Amino acid sequence: MNTFSRLYGHAPEGEWAAPGRVNLIGEHTDYNLGFVLPIALPQTVRAQARRRDDGLLRLHSTEGGSAEVAVADLAPGSVTGWAGYPAAVVWALREAGHDVGGAELSLDSDVPTGAGLSSSAALECAVAIAYNDLYGLGLSAPELALVAQRAENAYVGVPCGIMDQMASMCCRAGAALHLDSRDLAMRQVPVDLAGAGLALLVLDTRVKHDLGDGAYAGLRAGCERAARLLGLTALRELGPADLAAALPRLPEELRPLVRHVVTENERVSEAVAHLAAGALAALGPVLTAGHASLRDDYRVSCPETDLAVDTAVAAGAHGARMTGGGFGGSVIALVDAEAAEAVAADVTAAFLAKGFTAPRTLTATPAEGARRTA
Ligand code: GLA
User: Which of 92, 163, 169, 172 would bridge 150 by S-S if both were Cys, CB 3.0 to 4.6 A apart?
Assistant: First the structure.
Protein backbone atom coordinates (compact mmCIF):
# COMPACT_ATOMS: atom_id res chain seq x y z
CA MET A 1 0.00 0.00 0.00
CA ASN A 2 1.41 3.43 -0.80
CA THR A 3 1.80 6.23 1.74
CA PHE A 4 -1.41 8.01 0.81
CA SER A 5 -3.61 4.97 1.38
CA ARG A 6 -1.82 4.19 4.62
CA LEU A 7 -2.37 7.73 5.88
CA TYR A 8 -5.90 8.37 4.76
CA GLY A 9 -7.42 4.91 4.34
CA HIS A 10 -8.28 5.23 0.66
CA ALA A 11 -6.64 5.84 -2.72
CA PRO A 12 -5.75 9.33 -3.96
CA GLU A 13 -7.71 10.88 -6.84
CA GLY A 14 -4.50 11.58 -8.68
CA GLU A 15 -0.81 12.42 -8.56
CA TRP A 16 0.98 15.55 -9.68
CA ALA A 17 4.63 16.63 -9.87
CA ALA A 18 6.29 20.07 -9.99
CA PRO A 19 10.05 20.57 -10.49
CA GLY A 20 12.73 22.71 -8.92
CA ARG A 21 14.77 24.91 -11.26
CA VAL A 22 18.13 26.40 -12.04
CA ASN A 23 18.29 29.76 -13.71
CA LEU A 24 20.79 29.87 -16.58
CA ILE A 25 21.00 33.67 -16.50
CA GLY A 26 18.84 36.67 -15.52
CA GLU A 27 19.25 36.99 -11.75
CA HIS A 28 17.41 39.61 -9.69
CA THR A 29 15.78 40.83 -12.87
CA ASP A 30 12.30 39.34 -12.38
CA TYR A 31 11.07 41.81 -9.74
CA ASN A 32 12.50 44.58 -11.94
CA LEU A 33 10.11 43.29 -14.62
CA GLY A 34 13.02 42.11 -16.77
CA PHE A 35 14.09 38.84 -18.37
CA VAL A 36 15.05 35.41 -17.01
CA LEU A 37 16.14 32.10 -18.57
CA PRO A 38 15.54 29.15 -16.22
CA ILE A 39 15.35 25.43 -16.89
CA ALA A 40 13.34 22.96 -14.80
CA LEU A 41 15.24 20.22 -12.96
CA PRO A 42 14.38 16.52 -13.14
CA GLN A 43 13.95 16.70 -9.33
CA THR A 44 10.34 17.29 -8.33
CA VAL A 45 7.88 17.66 -5.49
CA ARG A 46 5.24 14.96 -5.94
CA ALA A 47 1.73 15.32 -4.55
CA GLN A 48 -0.88 12.61 -4.19
CA ALA A 49 -4.21 14.21 -3.39
CA ARG A 50 -7.89 13.72 -2.81
CA ARG A 51 -10.60 16.31 -2.34
CA ARG A 52 -12.44 16.54 1.02
CA ASP A 53 -15.80 18.17 1.32
CA ASP A 54 -15.65 19.01 5.05
CA GLY A 55 -13.27 21.97 4.65
CA LEU A 56 -10.33 20.24 6.28
CA LEU A 57 -6.84 20.43 4.78
CA ARG A 58 -4.81 17.41 5.85
CA LEU A 59 -1.14 17.43 4.93
CA HIS A 60 1.67 14.97 5.16
CA SER A 61 5.24 15.14 3.90
CA THR A 62 7.83 12.41 4.05
CA GLU A 63 10.37 14.83 5.52
CA GLY A 64 8.18 17.15 7.57
CA GLY A 65 5.43 15.02 9.10
CA SER A 66 1.72 15.79 9.35
CA ALA A 67 -0.41 18.91 9.79
CA GLU A 68 -4.10 19.67 9.71
CA VAL A 69 -6.01 22.93 9.36
CA ALA A 70 -9.52 24.10 8.49
CA VAL A 71 -9.35 26.09 5.27
CA ALA A 72 -11.81 28.63 6.68
CA ASP A 73 -9.24 29.48 9.38
CA LEU A 74 -6.36 30.14 6.98
CA ALA A 75 -4.83 33.60 7.32
CA PRO A 76 -1.33 34.85 6.42
CA GLY A 77 1.18 33.23 8.73
CA SER A 78 -1.39 30.99 10.47
CA VAL A 79 0.54 27.86 9.47
CA THR A 80 4.35 27.96 9.56
CA GLY A 81 7.16 25.60 8.57
CA TRP A 82 6.85 23.39 5.48
CA ALA A 83 3.05 23.09 5.83
CA GLY A 84 2.80 26.87 5.48
CA TYR A 85 3.48 26.59 1.73
CA PRO A 86 0.56 24.28 0.85
CA ALA A 87 -1.65 26.23 3.27
CA ALA A 88 -0.56 29.47 1.57
CA VAL A 89 -1.59 28.19 -1.85
CA VAL A 90 -5.05 27.16 -0.66
CA TRP A 91 -5.40 30.56 1.05
CA ALA A 92 -4.29 32.37 -2.15
CA LEU A 93 -6.77 30.43 -4.29
CA ARG A 94 -9.60 31.39 -1.91
CA GLU A 95 -8.38 35.00 -1.81
CA ALA A 96 -8.53 35.07 -5.61
CA GLY A 97 -12.21 34.10 -5.37
CA HIS A 98 -11.95 30.38 -6.14
CA ASP A 99 -14.39 28.29 -4.20
CA VAL A 100 -11.97 25.63 -2.96
CA GLY A 101 -12.29 23.61 0.23
CA GLY A 102 -10.33 20.86 1.89
CA ALA A 103 -8.13 18.06 0.64
CA GLU A 104 -5.84 15.28 1.73
CA LEU A 105 -2.30 15.64 0.44
CA SER A 106 0.70 13.39 0.69
CA LEU A 107 3.89 15.11 -0.43
CA ASP A 108 7.30 13.82 -1.25
CA SER A 109 10.31 15.64 -2.69
CA ASP A 110 13.76 15.05 -4.10
CA VAL A 111 14.46 18.76 -4.71
CA PRO A 112 17.29 19.70 -2.32
CA THR A 113 16.01 22.28 0.18
CA GLY A 114 17.79 25.52 1.05
CA ALA A 115 20.05 25.06 -1.98
CA GLY A 116 18.65 27.86 -4.15
CA LEU A 117 16.89 25.32 -6.38
CA SER A 118 13.35 26.52 -5.68
CA SER A 119 12.12 23.68 -3.53
CA SER A 120 9.47 26.01 -2.05
CA ALA A 121 8.17 27.07 -5.46
CA ALA A 122 8.04 23.40 -6.48
CA LEU A 123 5.99 22.62 -3.36
CA GLU A 124 3.62 25.52 -4.03
CA CYS A 125 3.20 24.58 -7.68
CA ALA A 126 2.57 20.89 -6.94
CA VAL A 127 -0.25 21.90 -4.60
CA ALA A 128 -1.59 24.54 -7.00
CA ILE A 129 -1.79 22.16 -9.96
CA ALA A 130 -3.35 19.41 -7.81
CA TYR A 131 -6.02 21.80 -6.50
CA ASN A 132 -6.66 23.08 -10.03
CA ASP A 133 -7.63 19.56 -11.06
CA LEU A 134 -9.35 18.46 -7.83
CA TYR A 135 -11.65 21.50 -7.94
CA GLY A 136 -11.91 21.81 -11.74
CA LEU A 137 -10.69 25.42 -11.66
CA GLY A 138 -9.43 25.46 -15.24
CA LEU A 139 -6.58 27.89 -14.44
CA SER A 140 -3.69 28.10 -16.90
CA ALA A 141 -0.09 27.37 -15.92
CA PRO A 142 0.86 31.10 -15.68
CA GLU A 143 -2.30 31.78 -13.64
CA LEU A 144 -1.30 29.02 -11.20
CA ALA A 145 2.23 30.47 -11.04
CA LEU A 146 0.77 33.86 -10.07
CA VAL A 147 -1.35 32.23 -7.34
CA ALA A 148 1.77 30.46 -6.01
CA GLN A 149 3.76 33.72 -6.04
CA ARG A 150 0.96 35.53 -4.19
CA ALA A 151 0.94 32.68 -1.65
CA GLU A 152 4.65 33.17 -1.04
CA ASN A 153 4.50 37.00 -1.00
CA ALA A 154 1.41 37.55 1.11
CA TYR A 155 1.13 34.41 3.25
CA VAL A 156 4.68 33.15 3.74
CA GLY A 157 6.04 36.71 3.65
CA VAL A 158 8.87 36.38 1.11
CA PRO A 159 8.75 39.19 -1.50
CA CYS A 160 9.99 36.95 -4.36
CA GLY A 161 9.52 37.69 -8.04
CA ILE A 162 7.72 35.41 -10.51
CA MET A 163 10.66 33.43 -11.96
CA ASP A 164 10.65 30.33 -9.75
CA GLN A 165 6.92 29.67 -9.94
CA MET A 166 6.84 30.30 -13.70
CA ALA A 167 9.82 27.99 -14.19
CA SER A 168 8.20 25.22 -12.18
CA MET A 169 4.85 25.59 -13.97
CA CYS A 170 5.88 26.44 -17.54
CA CYS A 171 9.29 24.95 -18.41
CA ARG A 172 9.43 22.28 -21.12
CA ALA A 173 11.77 19.30 -21.37
CA GLY A 174 14.80 20.09 -23.52
CA ALA A 175 14.31 23.85 -23.36
CA ALA A 176 15.02 26.95 -21.32
CA LEU A 177 12.16 29.34 -20.60
CA HIS A 178 12.86 32.83 -21.94
CA LEU A 179 10.42 34.80 -19.84
CA ASP A 180 9.53 38.47 -19.87
CA SER A 181 8.54 39.12 -16.26
CA ARG A 182 6.49 42.20 -17.21
CA ASP A 183 3.75 40.48 -19.20
CA LEU A 184 4.78 36.81 -18.77
CA ALA A 185 5.39 36.45 -22.52
CA MET A 186 7.46 33.30 -22.93
CA ARG A 187 9.46 31.45 -25.48
CA GLN A 188 10.86 27.93 -25.19
CA VAL A 189 14.51 28.01 -26.30
CA PRO A 190 15.91 24.53 -27.12
CA VAL A 191 18.94 23.54 -25.04
CA ASP A 192 20.51 20.32 -26.29
CA LEU A 193 23.41 19.95 -23.87
CA ALA A 194 24.17 16.32 -24.72
CA GLY A 195 24.04 17.05 -28.45
CA ALA A 196 26.74 19.69 -27.94
CA GLY A 197 28.86 17.34 -25.81
CA LEU A 198 28.21 19.51 -22.76
CA ALA A 199 26.86 19.06 -19.25
CA LEU A 200 25.50 21.50 -16.70
CA LEU A 201 26.89 20.83 -13.25
CA VAL A 202 24.97 22.06 -10.22
CA LEU A 203 27.18 22.51 -7.17
CA ASP A 204 25.20 23.04 -3.98
CA THR A 205 27.60 24.97 -1.73
CA ARG A 206 25.66 23.81 1.36
CA VAL A 207 25.55 27.40 2.54
CA LYS A 208 21.97 27.83 3.67
CA HIS A 209 20.14 30.18 1.45
CA ASP A 210 17.32 32.02 3.18
CA LEU A 211 15.41 34.72 1.36
CA GLY A 212 13.23 35.44 4.36
CA ASP A 213 15.98 37.19 6.30
CA GLY A 214 15.49 40.66 4.86
CA ALA A 215 18.53 40.97 2.57
CA TYR A 216 16.50 40.02 -0.52
CA ALA A 217 13.72 42.42 0.46
CA GLY A 218 16.31 45.17 0.96
CA LEU A 219 17.75 44.67 -2.53
CA ARG A 220 14.32 44.66 -4.07
CA ALA A 221 13.43 47.88 -2.23
CA GLY A 222 16.70 49.46 -3.44
CA CYS A 223 15.83 48.68 -7.05
CA GLU A 224 12.33 50.05 -6.65
CA ARG A 225 13.67 53.23 -5.08
CA ALA A 226 16.14 53.67 -7.96
CA ALA A 227 13.33 53.23 -10.49
CA ARG A 228 11.22 55.87 -8.70
CA LEU A 229 14.12 58.32 -8.59
CA LEU A 230 14.61 57.86 -12.33
CA GLY A 231 10.90 58.34 -13.02
CA LEU A 232 10.46 54.75 -14.23
CA THR A 233 7.88 52.10 -13.39
CA ALA A 234 10.64 49.48 -13.16
CA LEU A 235 14.36 49.22 -13.95
CA ARG A 236 13.47 47.04 -16.93
CA GLU A 237 12.75 50.27 -18.80
CA LEU A 238 16.39 51.32 -18.62
CA GLY A 239 18.56 50.18 -21.54
CA PRO A 240 22.36 49.91 -21.62
CA ALA A 241 22.56 53.13 -23.66
CA ASP A 242 20.75 55.03 -20.85
CA LEU A 243 23.06 53.82 -18.11
CA ALA A 244 25.78 56.48 -18.31
CA ALA A 245 23.24 59.29 -18.00
CA ALA A 246 21.13 57.55 -15.34
CA LEU A 247 23.77 56.52 -12.81
CA PRO A 248 24.93 60.03 -11.75
CA ARG A 249 21.30 60.88 -10.95
CA LEU A 250 21.22 58.19 -8.26
CA PRO A 251 22.67 58.02 -4.75
CA GLU A 252 26.02 56.24 -4.77
CA GLU A 253 24.74 53.09 -3.01
CA LEU A 254 22.05 52.40 -5.64
CA ARG A 255 24.29 52.68 -8.70
CA PRO A 256 25.79 49.18 -8.65
CA LEU A 257 22.33 47.63 -8.21
CA VAL A 258 21.06 49.42 -11.30
CA ARG A 259 24.20 48.55 -13.26
CA HIS A 260 23.69 44.87 -12.46
CA VAL A 261 20.04 44.80 -13.49
CA VAL A 262 20.63 46.60 -16.78
CA THR A 263 23.66 44.52 -17.78
CA GLU A 264 21.99 41.31 -16.62
CA ASN A 265 19.00 41.88 -18.90
CA GLU A 266 21.51 42.28 -21.73
CA ARG A 267 23.20 39.02 -20.77
CA VAL A 268 19.87 37.20 -21.04
CA SER A 269 19.53 38.46 -24.64
CA GLU A 270 23.10 37.40 -25.42
CA ALA A 271 22.52 33.96 -23.94
CA VAL A 272 19.32 33.46 -25.93
CA ALA A 273 21.14 34.50 -29.12
CA HIS A 274 23.89 31.92 -28.47
CA LEU A 275 21.35 29.18 -27.77
CA ALA A 276 19.32 30.06 -30.85
CA ALA A 277 22.50 29.87 -32.94
CA GLY A 278 23.30 26.46 -31.44
CA ALA A 279 26.51 27.89 -29.97
CA LEU A 280 26.02 26.42 -26.51
CA ALA A 281 29.59 26.70 -25.31
CA ALA A 282 29.50 30.45 -26.07
CA LEU A 283 27.10 30.71 -23.15
CA GLY A 284 30.01 30.10 -20.77
CA PRO A 285 31.58 33.58 -20.72
CA VAL A 286 28.11 35.12 -20.36
CA LEU A 287 27.55 33.04 -17.22
CA THR A 288 30.91 34.02 -15.74
CA ALA A 289 30.32 37.72 -16.48
CA GLY A 290 26.93 37.38 -14.76
CA HIS A 291 28.64 36.00 -11.67
CA ALA A 292 31.11 38.88 -11.53
CA SER A 293 28.19 41.30 -11.67
CA LEU A 294 26.35 39.49 -8.84
CA ARG A 295 29.55 39.43 -6.79
CA ASP A 296 30.82 42.97 -7.38
CA ASP A 297 27.71 45.02 -8.13
CA TYR A 298 24.75 43.21 -6.60
CA ARG A 299 26.83 41.74 -3.77
CA VAL A 300 24.83 38.56 -3.22
CA SER A 301 27.74 36.15 -3.59
CA CYS A 302 29.70 34.61 -0.72
CA PRO A 303 33.17 33.00 -0.36
CA GLU A 304 31.80 29.52 -1.13
CA THR A 305 29.98 30.51 -4.33
CA ASP A 306 33.01 32.52 -5.48
CA LEU A 307 35.33 29.60 -4.81
CA ALA A 308 33.08 27.18 -6.70
CA VAL A 309 32.93 29.52 -9.72
CA ASP A 310 36.66 30.30 -9.76
CA THR A 311 37.66 26.65 -9.31
CA ALA A 312 35.24 25.38 -11.96
CA VAL A 313 36.51 27.93 -14.50
CA ALA A 314 40.15 27.16 -13.64
CA ALA A 315 39.36 23.45 -14.11
CA GLY A 316 38.17 24.09 -17.65
CA ALA A 317 34.46 24.94 -17.33
CA HIS A 318 33.24 27.15 -20.20
CA GLY A 319 31.64 29.36 -17.57
CA ALA A 320 30.05 29.30 -14.12
CA ARG A 321 27.87 31.43 -11.88
CA MET A 322 25.80 31.35 -8.74
CA THR A 323 22.14 30.71 -9.51
CA GLY A 324 19.05 31.87 -7.63
CA GLY A 325 18.78 34.55 -4.98
CA GLY A 326 22.34 34.20 -3.67
CA PHE A 327 23.79 34.42 -0.13
CA GLY A 328 24.85 30.80 -0.63
CA GLY A 329 22.84 28.21 -2.52
CA SER A 330 24.05 26.65 -5.75
CA VAL A 331 26.52 27.36 -8.54
CA ILE A 332 26.05 26.13 -12.10
CA ALA A 333 29.02 25.30 -14.31
CA LEU A 334 28.85 24.62 -18.04
CA VAL A 335 31.41 21.91 -18.78
CA ASP A 336 32.43 19.46 -21.49
CA ALA A 337 30.52 16.28 -20.65
CA GLU A 338 33.68 14.23 -20.27
CA ALA A 339 35.18 16.83 -17.91
CA ALA A 340 32.19 16.98 -15.54
CA GLU A 341 33.57 14.58 -12.96
CA ALA A 342 37.00 16.16 -12.91
CA VAL A 343 35.57 19.68 -12.49
CA ALA A 344 33.32 18.52 -9.64
CA ALA A 345 36.28 16.79 -8.00
CA ASP A 346 38.41 19.96 -8.24
CA VAL A 347 35.67 22.06 -6.64
CA THR A 348 35.24 19.51 -3.85
CA ALA A 349 38.99 19.46 -3.21
CA ALA A 350 39.12 23.27 -3.13
CA PHE A 351 36.23 23.35 -0.62
CA LEU A 352 37.88 20.80 1.67
CA ALA A 353 41.21 22.65 1.48
CA LYS A 354 39.44 25.79 2.77
CA GLY A 355 37.64 23.88 5.52
CA PHE A 356 34.23 24.28 3.81
CA THR A 357 31.66 21.45 3.77
CA ALA A 358 31.97 19.46 0.52
CA PRO A 359 29.41 20.58 -2.06
CA ARG A 360 26.62 18.30 -3.19
CA THR A 361 26.80 17.81 -6.94
CA LEU A 362 24.17 16.98 -9.50
CA THR A 363 23.91 17.23 -13.26
CA ALA A 364 20.98 19.20 -14.65
CA THR A 365 19.13 18.42 -17.83
CA PRO A 366 16.22 20.67 -18.87
CA ALA A 367 13.14 18.82 -17.65
CA GLU A 368 9.37 19.15 -17.92
CA GLY A 369 7.35 21.63 -15.83
CA ALA A 370 4.46 20.80 -13.48
CA ARG A 371 2.16 18.05 -14.68
CA ARG A 372 -0.34 15.39 -13.67
CA THR A 373 1.42 12.05 -13.43
CA ALA A 374 -1.44 9.68 -12.54
C1 GLA B 1 14.80 34.01 -5.82
C2 GLA B 1 13.41 34.58 -6.08
C3 GLA B 1 13.21 34.86 -7.56
C4 GLA B 1 14.34 35.70 -8.13
C5 GLA B 1 15.69 35.13 -7.72
C6 GLA B 1 16.83 36.01 -8.13
O7 GLA B 1 14.93 32.76 -6.41
O8 GLA B 1 12.42 33.68 -5.63
O9 GLA B 1 11.97 35.48 -7.78
O10 GLA B 1 14.22 37.03 -7.75
O11 GLA B 1 15.78 34.90 -6.33
O12 GLA B 1 16.93 36.08 -9.50
Answer: 92
Closest approach atom of ligand 1 to CA 211: 1
Is 24 domain-assigned?
Answer: yes
The residue whose CA is least distant from atom 2 of ligand 1 is 160
Evaluate: CB of 128 within 6 angstroms of ligand 1: no
Any ligand 1 atom below 6 A from CB of 163:
yes
**Residue span of the structural domain in which 318 resides:** 192-364
Are 26 and 136 in the same domain? yes
Cβ of 220 closer than 6 Å to ligand 1, yes or no, is: no
Catalytic pick among 164, 180, 310, 346: 164
pLDDT for 211 beyond 80:
no
Q: What atom in ligand 1 is closest to the CA of residue 163?
A: 9
User: Does 213 score more than 90 pLDDT?
Assistant: no
Q: What are the tens digits of pLDDT across the range 3-51?
A: 899 999 999 999 999 999 999 999 999 999 999 999 999 999 999 999 9
End-to-end CA distance of the chain: 16
For the entire predicted model, the pTM comes to: 0.98
Cα gap 87→75, rounded to integer Å? 9
Whichever domain contains 319, its CATH number is 3.30.70.890
Position 214 scores a pLDDT of: 87
Q: Hey, which of 24, 25, 28, 300 would you mutate to test ligand 1's pocket, going by the most ligand atoms within 8 Å of its Cβ?
A: 28
Do residues 181 and 246 share a domain?
no
Interior angle at CA 279, CA 259 and CA 326, nearest 5 = 35
CA atoms within 13 A on the CB side of 248: 2
Round to whole Å and give the CA distance between 292 and 276: 24
User: Is 306 a catalytic site residue?
Assistant: no
State CA 270 to chain mean position distance: 21
Pair (141, 279) in one structural domain = no
218 shares a domain with 141: no
359 CA distance to ligand 1 middle (Å): 21
Q: How many CA atoms lie within 13 A of 152 on its CB side?
A: 25
